[in-house]
């Protein structure tokens, strides 16, 4: 039997390549009631932004590009902007006890406060959202510095999470007004990948029991998003854990939001554990797209990132091997790294999940390498949950 090539098959040189990595499709956003260009950034409130910026630089290979804090006259927060390809994250810490980030951190631990969207027309998007019943958290307004003007507004989504809407077409600075360019925090290790991921593929929200459909309807009504095919119900429930999941996405599929709710099960589900420790609904995981998951996992593991374990039986299962068929690397290479495989009618994907990235068992990351599949690894959910449950059991929360 000939083995598939081990080289990455998609390069990352152009915007079109990145679109392929995240499964984007052709679609004219001008037709949309709420046109979205893509994710602008993801804003974390953390307990210590300085150390988070270091961790995400060394462990996730991100590059610090901008900063804003007391030195620039912003008295409440220190904010570090890190990028990896087209993905952009802001790690925000409070510099005193009454700062918004400090309060958010006390309630939720390190968590995602804002999933910001780039839109061509902030006023139009905001008005549509409000007309459709969204809660406004900031009316459209301009913010200006020497590098130009951005127009921003914000609406509420699940829990204490928000969507800032940004038009940055008239702005040329390193991030947003007030931010200054900042040099990378660490040097990239010689010989490793240039970066460990290229884009954000999807952001998953956990909501309370019985509220998933409400939030699915919210994204359909407020943002004109549509359901993607993947739906998870009883068929992926294990003996101990269960969840329901549906996926909504923008017309281009550049923005994809799976939404989970716990399902009734014999023991506490992983979604219940999240809701308890996060203090309500919130973003559960961020999937980042790579064109070489092997190299990324090796580099991240070497830098101390912990990934979920997968039982060897997963790889030795004949049914699974038959279903997976031929993928670009020998299955032994996947097994050695605990990388999961899923296949559907459009192709396959490789994926792996980190353990929670802060003290609370809440937010984690996923690495995903798509080869045609527009799925989210439904076939792996059972194997994944069993692995998560082993961790939950170790913490005494099962
Ligand atoms: Fe995911």
Automatic annotation (TrEMBL):
CDD domains: HPPD_C_like, HPPD_N_like
Keyword Metal-binding assigned: yes
Key words, A-Z: Dioxygenase, Iron, Metal-binding, Oxidoreductase, Repeat
Cofactor note: Binds 1 Fe cation per subunit.
Record flagged with keyword Oxidoreductase: yes
Gene3D superfamilies in the record: 2,3-Dihydroxybiphenyl 1,2-Dioxygenase, domain 1
Binding site for Fe cation: 202, 285, 366
One example GO MF annotation: 4-hydroxyphenylpyruvate dioxygenase activity
InterPro entries: 4OHPhenylPyrv_dOase, 4OHPhenylPyrv_dOase_C, 4OHPhenylPyrv_dOase_N, Glyas_Bleomycin-R_OHBP_Dase, Glyas_Fos-R_dOase_dom, VOC_core
Coiled coil residues, start to end: none
Cofactor(s) the record lists: Fe cation
UniProt-listed GO biological process terms: L-tyrosine catabolic process
Domain VOC: 38-168, 199-355
Domain of life: Bacteria
Family to which this protein belongs: Belongs to the 4HPPD family.
Name this protein carries in UniProt: 4-hydroxyphenylpyruvate dioxygenase
Lineage, highest ranks first: Bacteria, Bacillati, Actinomycetota, Actinomycetes, Micromonosporales
